[in-house]
Amino acid sequence: MRGKLIAAVVATALAFSMSACAEDSGSGTSSDSSAGAGGSTTIKSGLKVAFLPKQVNNPYFDTSDNKGGKVAVEEFKGTYSETGPSEASPSAQVSYINTLSQQGANVIAVSANDKDAICGALKEARTNGAKVVTYDSDTKPECRDLFINQATSEGIAKIQVKLISDAIGPDGGEIAILSATANATNQNAWIEQMKAELGKPEYSKLKLVDTVYGDDEDQKSFQEAQGLMAKHPNLKGIISPTTVGIAAAGRYLSGSTYKGKVQLTGLGTPNQMKAYVKDGTVKAFALWNPADLGYLAAYAGAALASGVIKGKEGDKFTAGKLGEFTVGKDGTVLLGDPYTFKADNIDQFNF
């Protein structure tokens, strides 16, 4: 992530904060914001902001939504809500989008389980007046107003491949990927970039032999990790770019004869992974601050709903404590680069 974000992460132990906004409701004004192409310079108060994660009761989204989004909405005196499916299936979010639209949500912040399946519902919600911001996992650009990207796909791929290479050592060996759902836009983008990264000369001794899917379910991910070892007895490492998957794989490896012999890295939260780092199962893993991601998504939606920006490339807005951001190509706003957690810094964080 950009330098200021990493500095904030280390200095404040990833303090959670966030702000959200929406559109028609709210006659007053709240947080000041830099004017973009929209004309207005202030964010409305009274906006109804709804977060729709891939699945509820997921520690990652509990952090991004409730410790990021909710804080932000309260900052500008909006109304916050979170709703969503208990299982991360492609079409499970459609009915929730329809309901939020009918309820008059000003902003819908959604992490897409499938880039195509929810497009129709999102387009209808936008027609009804909602501003749609995707975060963590995108839809097709024409289905939303902005996408809040936690980091570039290239940056996420690079750090994960480097971490597994460093953990395994110079001799290399067979590696596998334990992903979330087969349809998850972000997962598939990262996997493709990891394959490209593995094609570089410095990683010539690493061989990707399998990619499996735990569907962001703890038990299924645990079983998939177990299955990888049965299928590939010479496996040297697992990359799991999902917080549910890496924690489940860590639990499996830490209690098996493969502990310390098969390396594990990916994207996880410090609280999930602390025990596995301290017992030697995991040397290092990465993530951005999910609370900052939700915080930024809320402010971006608020800026749209208040007319501060229109979502065009070059638009600028201020996201509370995180500072100023600029809308990039295809309506994308970049949070920053991933941060690496390891034994000498993991105790500094609590999320």
TrEMBL record:
Principal subcellular localization: other
Listed GO MF terms: carbohydrate binding
Leader sequence residues: 1-22
Alphabetically ordered keywords of this record: Signal
GO biological process: rhamnose transmembrane transport
Entry-linked SUPFAM superfamilies: Periplasmic binding protein-like I
InterPro entries in the record: Bact_Solute-Bind_Prot2, Peripla_BP_I, RhaS, SBP_2_dom
Domain Periplasmic binding protein: 49-307
GO cellular component term of the entry, any: outer membrane-bounded periplasmic space
Compartments in which it is found: Cell envelope
NCBIfam families per record: RhaS
Protein name, UniProt field: Rhamnose ABC transporter substrate-binding protein
Organism, scientific name: Dactylosporangium matsuzakiense
Organism phylogeny: Bacteria, Bacillati, Actinomycetota, Actinomycetes, Micromonosporales
GN (gene name): rhaS
